[in-house]
């Protein structure tokens, strides 16, 4: 959901105003105008994307990725997230608090609507070529040679 300032900055930019003009109109700095426009662009991309995980907040999505890809060594799919939510395993995931779990529950309901069932199937299908997960970089002990 775009903030009022983001929407206003986007409208002003679309009407041909410069960044400096928008900054004066909104009583913010030019750098803040650039940030508002970038946020608006990112939100628009999230709305039209086929990836359902882009609809989650960055913190929640990163927590899920860390848990499923690196800790559990599982593919991150909508079905695996739904299963973890229903079994209660999401409550033990590091960096996912109560609000993140509530966000995931709302997200799952929205993903599983009739309009997005085929999107869900495409997102849940494993890729045709499996790519191994790169190991975490660690400093290895030096051998004495």
Please, could you describe this protein's structure?
58% of the residues lie in helices and 0% in strands. The protein has helices spanning 4-14, 19-26, 30-48, 58-71, 78-87, 98-111, 117-124. The chain contains 7 helices and no strands. It has 145 residues and is mainly α. It is elongated and about 50 Å long. The model is unreliable at 128-140 (pLDDT under 50).
* End-to-end distance: 59 Å
What number is the mean pLDDT?
Answer: 78
Estimate the strand proportion. under 5%
Shape estimate:
elongated
Helix fraction?
55-70%
Give me the number of helical elements: 7
The biggest beta sheet reads:
none
Structural class: mainly alpha
Low-confidence stretches: 128-140
Radius of gyration over all CA atoms, rounded = 20 Å
Summarize the helix and strand pattern as letters. HHHHHHH
Could you tell me the number of beta strands? 0
Outline of this structure?
By secondary structure, the protein is mostly helical. The chain has 7 helices and no strands.
What would the keywords be for this entry?
145 residues, mainly alpha, 7 helices
Describe the protein's topology:
Blueprint: H1 4-14, H2 19-26, H3 30-48, H4 58-71, H5 78-87, H6 98-111, H7 117-124
């Amino acid at each position: 959901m775009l903030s009022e300032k983001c929407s206003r900055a986007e409208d002003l930019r679309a009407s041909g105003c410069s960044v400096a003009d928008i900054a004066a109109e909104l009583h913010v700095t030019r750098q803040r105008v650039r940030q508002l426009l970038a946020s608006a662009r990112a939100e628009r991309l999230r709305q039209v994307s086929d990836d359902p995980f882009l609809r989650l907040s960055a913190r929640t999505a990163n927590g899920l990725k860390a848990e499923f890809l690196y800790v559990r060594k599982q593919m991150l799919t909508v079905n695996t997230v739904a299963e973890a939510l229903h079994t209660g395993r999401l409550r033990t995931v590091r960096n996912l608090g109560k609000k993140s779990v509530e966000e995931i529950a709302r997200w799952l309901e929205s993903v599983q609507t009739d309009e997005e069932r085929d999107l869900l199937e495409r997102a849940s299908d494993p890729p045709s070529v499996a790519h191994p997960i790169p190991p975490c970089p660690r400093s290895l002990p030096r051998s004495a040679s």
